[in-house]
Structure formats: structure tokens, C-alpha cells
Design goal:
The radius of gyration is 22 Å and the shape is globular. Helix 1 runs antiparallel to helix 8, helix 3 runs parallel beside helix 4 and helix 9 runs parallel beside helix 13. The protein starts with 15 loop residues before the first helix and ends with a helix. It is about 35% helix and about 10% strand. It has 14 helices and 13 strands. The protein is of the alpha/beta class and about 400 residues long. It has a seven-stranded mixed beta sheet, sandwiched between helices. Strands 7-6-11 form a three-stranded antiparallel beta sheet, with no helix packed on it. It binds pyridoxal-5'-phosphate (PLP). The site of pyridoxal-5'-phosphate has 14 residues, from helix 3 and helix 4.
């Protein structure tokens, strides 16, 4: 397969607007956090309908800041999902708290009933992740949080552009009177809105956001970014031990035009995801990922599920077969308990999560991004069907295997 025909797993959607915007910022004389970042925060908070937003240099930094600003620390437990990127769990450990894993439901998101089983007197916060962009059952999660007086921090790294019951992830659910304490987005290179590296935290509480803003820049107690402007002062005070998590104006200059194109990106991804589902739904060897029953899926990831009992090859071999046909693929995610570092949590019975481990063993994330053509989608789907057919288990095995 020649390199020209290769369909990579991901390609960022960067246009002339981003190039011009960065050039303008580079020539402006102001490179670090400043007016462009303030504008990015304002426009972002409008887009997700959250009153406050803080730009940060990664989604991980945003999650860390949220936990720190809520004073979550040693002796506390935070309940999250096993089917997430390691960052979600690492930040819980960075603040000295203990991660507790609640297993997923059929869609891949944390199951509220499993959350209930994991609550102890030490539980302080819930950290749901909107896996692949499919919104979690937030009303159930918020209701548990209210009942047990817990904080809610949403890891919305996949969910920019997703809607929960008509409201953007970040807005909460105003008719029910619910909103999370913090919602964290990522602008990593593979995310729908990218600044190369970056992130955003949104909140509905002014105090929480101001605390995060202070912790974001060394714990300096005033608006320090204008320190070097002609109106700025040389004087500043450190009020607490903070971090260095601010987003630069160069990155915000990429983020602004990316934000302006988000609705287009969501529409393009949705069209491609629907085409995959249309082309693949007849195959007996694979299962298509679920759409949102009561919201809008932003289709950050198209996580195909293999029916392993109907296949004679493993998920890893399936990915190799795709690669041999010039198609990139990925896997989201290796469940937390399978990583060597988190083994000590995995052996605790309360962190058992068989559903996440089962789903992981059969998922493949297919290429999905706005610059894919319908022909690209067709080619990937044809390859999936062809690989599945050539490697279908014999009928006897298929019948004896339990249907999924
Ligand atoms: C990408 C991602 C993060 C981390 O975001 P960074 O911006 O890379 O720090 C956290 N959680 C999930 C689920 C992610 O996919």
C-alpha cells in the first residue's frame, strides 16, 4: 500500500484561519497569556453555556486544578471510570486522594448504579468521563452527588460539542437545577478542537473559578498577566503554592478559529459516523457504537465493537489487518487496572470492573475526522467487512459462543 493511500487514524483540521491568527499573535509582541486567551475564554464559555472559563495548558492540568481548588486531598476518595485515559486517575493521585473505580454500563460510560455501590464516608467527588463523546447519564450522577454531598468534576476531553438533554456539556441541566463543580476539556492534538496542547475548565461558581485561576499561575493573587504591560505593575503576591498551567496567546490564537468551526466539525464527524453505522450494521461480526438516546453525540471517537465469539482472530490481529490495508486505527482505552502502576488498585475488590475489561478487549477506534472523504469512510468500512468475513469463526464455534 503506497503512503498516498494511507488513511491515518487522525488528522487535525487546521486551515488558513489558524495560520493567519497565529501569525497575527506572533507579530503582536504578546506571546504568553493575554488578551487572545481572555477572548478565547469568553467565547468558549458562551459556546458551552457556562458562566466561567479558564484556559489551561492541558486537559490534565485542568483536572488537577479542579481537584486542588476543591481541596480534595489525602484521606479522600474520588470515584471515576476504569475506561479512561490514565490522566483522569493520575490527577486524583497527584492531590493525594485515592481513586475508586466504578464499572461502566453498556454504552461505555460509568454506570450510576455502580457509583452507588462504591460510595463510602470518605468519598468526596465523582469524575465521570463522556466516553467517545457520548454524554453520561448526568441527571443520575448529579442526583447521587447531591444526595451524598459530593463534588462533580466532568472529564469532558471527548465531549466538546456534545449535548446532554439539549444543553452543551459544560452547561449542566438548567431545568433540573444541576451543574457540575468543574467541567474539563482537552485541546490535545487528536481532540476535535486542538491547540496542539491545551485545555479549558468551565465552572458555574465564581469562587471555584477564581481559586483555579490563582492556582493556575503560581498562586499569584492578582491578574498577573498584565504585569509587563504599560498599565501593569511590577508588584505581585503569592497567596498559595500554585502551578504553572496557563495557556499562551499563541495557543489561544489557534483555539479561536478552531472554536468558530466546532459546529461544522461536529456535523462532519456525525455524517461520517452515521455512514459507518449504515455500512457496518449488517455485519454479524461487528457491533456499531451507540448513539445518544437523549442528547447529541459529538462523535469524537467511533469505537467499533468486535463480536470476538464470531471471529477467529483477536482484536490486535484485526488492527494489523487494517494496517495491512493502509488504514490506521487505535484503541480507547486500556482500562486503568491493566496498567502496572495501578495494579495495587486492581487487586482491591472494590475496583473490580469486568465490563470495562470485556469491552476493551473487543473495541477498535476507526479513523473519524472532518477531512475524511465519504470514499475514505467507505474504504474503511469495506476493509472491516472484508476482514470480518475472511476471519469469521466456523459456524460450530459461532453457535457455541454466547451471543453478545
Ligand atoms: C485527552 C484526554 C485527557 C487529557 O487531556 P490532555 O489535554 O492530553 O492533558 C484526559 N481524559 C481523557 C478521557 C482524554 O481523552
Amino acid at each position: 500500500m503506497s503512503i498516498d493511500n494511507y488513511i491515518p487514524y487522525h488528522r487535525p483540521s487546521i486551515g488558513q484561519e489558524e495560520v493567519d491568527s497565529v501569525e497575527q499573535t506572533l507579530r503582536s509582541g504578546w506571546l504568553t497569556t493575554g488578551a487572545r486567551t481572555a477572548q478565547f475564554e469568553r467565547e468558549f464559555s458562551e459556546y458551552v453555556q457556562a458562566p466561567y472559563a479558564l484556559a489551561v495548558n492541558s486537559g490534565t492540568a485542568g483536572l488537577h486544578l479542579a481537584l486542588a481548588a476543591l481541596d480534595i486531598g489525602p484521606g479522600d476518595e474520588v470515584i471515576t471510570t476504569p475506561l479512561t485515559f490514565c490522566a483522569t486517575v493520575n490527577v486524583i493521585m497527584h492531590v493525594g486522594a485515592e481513586p475508586v473505580l466504578a464499572d461502566i454500563g453498556p454504552g461505555g460510560n460509568i454506570d450510576p448504579e455502580q457509583i452507588r455501590l462504591k460510595i463510602t464516608p470518605r468519598t468526596r467527588a465523582l469524575m465521570p468521563v463522556h466516553f467517545a463523546g457520548l454524554p453520561c447519564d448526568m441527571n443520575a450522577i448529579w442526583s447521587i452527588a447531591r444526595e451524598h454531598r459530593l463534588f462533580t468534576i466532568e472529564d469532558a476531553a471527548h465531549a466538546l460539542g456534545s449535548l446532554y438533554r439539549g444543553y452543551p456539556i459544560g452547561a449542566g441541566h438548567p431545568p433540573a437545577g444541576y451543574a457540575s463543580d468543574a467541567v474539563v476539556f482537552s485541546f490535545y492534538a487528536t481532540k476535535s478542537l486542538t491547540t496542539g496542547e491545551g485545555g479549558m475548565v468551565t465552572a458555574h461558581g465564581k469562587d471555584a473559578l477564581e481559586r483555579m485561576r490563582r492556582l493556575c499561575l503560581h498562586g499569584i493573587g492578582k491578574d498577573a498577566w498584565n504585569r509587563y504591560a504599560d498599565c501593569g505593575s511590577w508588584y505581585y503576591e503569592v497567596a498559595e503554592c500554585g502551578f504553572k498551567y496557563n495557556l499562551s496567546d499563541i495557543q489561544s490564537a489557534i483555539g479561536l478559529p478552531q472554536l468558530h468551526k466546532q459546529e461544522q466539525f461536529v456535523a462532519a464527524r456525525t455524517e461520517r459516523a452515521r455512514l459507518y453505522t449504515e455500512l457496518l450494521s449488517d455485519s454479524d461480526e461487528v457491533e456499531c457504537p451507540p448513539d445518544s438516546p437523549d442528547g447529541r453525540h459529538c462523535w469524537h471517537i467511533y469505537a467499533l465493537r468486535l463480536r470476538l465469539n464470531r471471529l477467529a482472530i483477536s482484536r490486535a490481529q484485526f488492527i494489523e489487518e487494517l494496517r495491512a490495508r493502509g488504514i490506521g486505527a487505535s484503541v480507547h482505552f486500556i482500562p486503568i487496572p491493566l496498567h502496572p502502576y495501578f495494579k495495587k488498585y486492581a487487586v482491591l475488590s472494590r475496583n473490580h470492573c469486568p465490563r470495562a475489561i470485556d469491552l476493551y478487549s473487543r473495541m477498535i477506534s476507526l479513523p473519524l475526522y472532518p477531512s475524511m472523504t465519504p470514499e475514505d469512510v467507505q474504504r474503511v468500512a469495506t476493509a472491516v467487512i472484508d476482514i470480518a468475513r475472511r476471519n469469521a469463526a466456523t459456524k460450530a464455534i459461532a453457535v457455541s459462543g454466547r451471543g453478545r
